[in-house]
């Protein structure tokens, strides 16, 4: 089975300035003035061509399809993402998809536009747990994001989410699964996050996951790729594919990953945009052991 992992797509969407409120103003100006040029549309066109060439069985997007959670952004993202094979997709939201309280109100924008592609809800409370079976593999999605002040982008996963997930896995007799969450559960030493940006209780999450570990933990949030190989504390791969639609530079190793699973073994390939060939080509893995 082949899984193509994308993250932090941040599709550009023009928004009338008078429709921006609160932190959306700062966020939109930051994106428009500082980051938009780093996300040229031809990168997405090249990703679509890669999908045609690589022919994955499943496509995972681990959050941040928008920038400031304006409803128009979700509408635009829906049209763009419709170019992917819809029966192969699994989405979860990221912090930019939960950017404002309006976006997570009584009718959350992400669920309004992407619920059908995000799997079955298996939570009996307000917590977000989704599960979807694609080509024989089960994908479990968690939502680690919440609307915060402009200075914060941290995340958290309530322990009840983990216990409920493991309960469902036992009930359905699911042994092998892929876990998808926007915030990293692990960072390389040179890519550590501040308390304002990280998954706050990730040590607790890692400890609880030891009972029924996934084959891989797929995430985004930090805009540079890496892969952590299975270790003692986290006996599974940790894969970061952010930001798939961003141009790489000296501080950002951007692209996506293709994972091939055979008998619980993972073969992982990394692809980055090659400006000389105007397409994505295979590149060396940015890989680490758990102790690095």
UniProtKB/TrEMBL annotation:
- Single GO MF annotation: metal ion binding
InterPro entries attached here? Calcineurin-like_PHP (IPR004843), CNP_phosphodiesterase-III (IPR050884), Metallo-depent_PP-like (IPR029052)
Keywords per UniProt: Hydrolase, Iron, Metal-binding
Instruction: Give a yes or no for keyword Cytoplasm in this entry.
Output: no
Q: Per the database record, which ranges form the Calcineurin-like phosphoesterase domain? A: 1-224
The family assignment reads: Belongs to the cyclic nucleotide phosphodiesterase class-III family.
Name of protein: Phosphohydrolase
What is the protein's species of origin? Leptospira stimsonii
Organism lineage reads as:
Bacteria, Pseudomonadati, Spirochaetota, Spirochaetia, Leptospirales
